[in-house]
Write a structure and sequence with these properties.
CATH superfamily of chain A: MetI-like
Largest interface: A-B, 49 and 78 residues
Distance between the termini of chain B: 41 Å
Helix content of chain A: 55-70%
Helix content of chain B: 25-40%
Shape of chain B: globular
Oligomer: heterodimer
Strand content of chain A: under 5%
Structural class of chain B: alpha/beta
Shape of chain A: elongated
Radius of gyration of chain A: 25 Å
Number of helices of chain B: 21
CATH class of chain A: Mainly Alpha
Chain lengths: 311, 556
Amino acid sequence: MTTVTVPATDNAADKTAGKAPGKAAGRASGSPFRRGLRRFTHNRLAVFGLVVLGFFLLFCFIGPLLYPTDQVHTDLTSTMLPPGTNGHPLGTDDVGYDVLGRLMIAGQVSIVIGLAAGVLATVIGTLWGAIAGYVGGAVDAVMMRIVDAGIAIPATFLLLILSAIMKPSVPLMIIVIGLVSWLVPARLVRAESISLKSREYVLALRAMGGTHGRAVMKHIVPNTVGTIVVNATFQVADAILLVAYVSFLGMGLQRPATDWGAMLTGGMQYTYAGAWWLIFPAGLCIVLVVVAFNAIGDGLRDFFDVKGRDR
Amino acid sequence: MSANAPLLSIRDLHVTFRTDDGPVEAVKGIDLDIRAGEVLALVGESGSGKSVTAMSILQLLPSTATRTGTIALDGRELTALSEAQMNDVRGREISMIFQEPMTALNPSMRIGDQIAEALRNHESMTKAQAHAQAVELLRRVGIPEPERRAAGYAHEMSGGQRQRVVIAIALACGPKLIIADEPTTALDVTVQAEILDLIRDLATERGTAFLLVTHNMGVVADVADRVAVMYRGSMVEVGPTTQVLRHPEADYTQRLLAAVPRLPDADEAEPELPEVAEVAPVLSLAGASVTYRKAGQNFTALDAVSVDIAPGEILGLVGESGSGKSTLGKVALGLVPMSGGELRLFGEKVGHGGVRGRAERRLRGRVGAVFQDPGSSLDPRATVAEAIAEPLIVHRASHPMSGRARAARVRELLEAVELPAAYASRYPHELSGGQRQRIGLARAIALEPELIIADEPTSALDVSVQAAVLKVLRELQERMGFACLFISHDLAVVHEFSDRVAVMYAGRIVELGRTDDVLLRPEHPYSRRLLASVPVPDPVVQADRRLARLTTRSVA
């Protein structure tokens, strides 16, 4: 009953706590957001992740404005130039595209697909899991068996088949990756939803005649936001990797569109020609962005830690 | 040992915690002596530092705590010992009993082995010897058939028996001092009485000293020789139980004792007001049953219960855990479906064959609910204003209101529960338990309900806070005149608050009548046993009650 972290304002100060001196300090560090922000910034890795991600966003979306290159027309007079020649800081590839400029537009595709697919997966998974957990019983059983069945299908394999049947495009890849990766958040949110639905504030809403829809949207989903957002960052990282896999296997976007995975594939053919600049930059971009998202996810976990302790 | 040499002596103990919001001093330089064979009760409200003091004796404080001062056991300084030496003291010279017996025992280990483990930790003996001694210890703490029980597991025992096993483990190596942190708080009153008897016997027979950490003044009056009262990290009063409880000197002790609700003596009670005139009840249950399926077996939580609540009437519902009183409250709120029987709200049948869907939800707007746990009764991500405004938003169709009117209503409700209007923008984690419970109350009365269902609304609160919350609830009831189903295990609180009382036992209402009749002159044998088990915070009266209870038990 008595825990060691209880602040002293809990007892007879009940009536006078409004005037108690300790309360003013507590108020300054008040809203959950500000307390969370302080914990997030304590996590150095997360701050590093945020900086790296910020750099890549600027690089991919602002970079092409400052460093315009032609990424549509091939230039067969200047192929396979090593870095630093003829005004190509990172050289050119086998059809004469500038590698630095290509990294930028490839990054746009990777990041857009990753973010959009991650958000799509998170939205579907959250609603699915929250409803399954809240309703329970037979509805829950059926909904979760669908999730189990979905998890049994290998996502890479499904993407390869679809790419073989249809012409791969950015919207298609977003939808397909989104539709195969909502299963994990659905499971996570369902577990939280089950524990949240028996909380007294949910019971209180039901007792005052509130609808089930309001219970799910107002109380269940907002209180799983920690789980959701942390998982979403991992989803984005996974989606970027998945796009890279598929493109690497040659079933991704077709030229002149590209992404980092496709750049890697292109470079692989020239490994023995010593064209390292076609492999390392793209590979490094994938690794850094994926690591950055994972680090941010780790920091967000601290951010949403309601217990609010130092680590 | 000479009478004036204390067994344990604490001098100038300070404990400070490092937290997000800067250091918090939990214990501010206290002195305390415990003599051999005495039961010393350390009382105080949450945050008073009583548990921290107990933990610092065994050096079991979390790593964020720093401690200064001296703690000597039999003249040996404990603070100077290394962790390995201290480990030898723990269990052998000082042992500990925790609040929750279920989590203190290992569910996958036989009871006998758990006691034997405690023995073999400190003394070299064979497995067979340890086992024989474990059975002996179980016998000593009053477990029937100790040989059979030693081979069993914790889940096969009741809460009271588990706590006896925990005590047996604490006794294993014959410690000089046992620290018991709220050892009976998680138990029902009838079981609590038996555990307290055991502690009293052990102190008298074996000369074991007990440091009993508790917030319950009745428990103190029942078993303690001396009392130490803590308030906000300081020791405000230490003395013999009779003196402190009957003639408290410190202001705080007087206030604390005044806030403890008590049952009057049977002959003191004044006759109740006549019954309210015959009108349609606001809530009517007829033959209500609830059956759960648990591990393939049917469990009847509510067994054909019939009860009516008249407009403006307060019905108290008492009983021990598992008696079905909370289930009854949830049935009335429509949170648990009935497997049989009929529920009528304001004369209209609800559920199968009655109003459903939107009409039922509208009916529910006329019922308010207050729950027990101030930690989970408010959404941690919603501000106080959002929480209080929720019923207004849910019922905006029948009670249309502009955003500004709603904000004004929230301020009005905050004022009604005696909280400043500025609290509207705060989050639940910034409030104390009592404040959160007032917010819960404000939310319940937002739509001016005709019936409030309050399930243990003050059980998780300290007595002084409980008194304040009950006062607010009573004033609101007098002003708004709502009927109330008041569920509580605390008979004194129910007595203070209710017009009529129902006693529940094993899913049935065993006695129902006017408050004074049921609580002061109970007729049903279970009601009598329940009342006899409640310790009263007066050591002299409690000594008589203890004697009376022990004789009735030995006769029975």
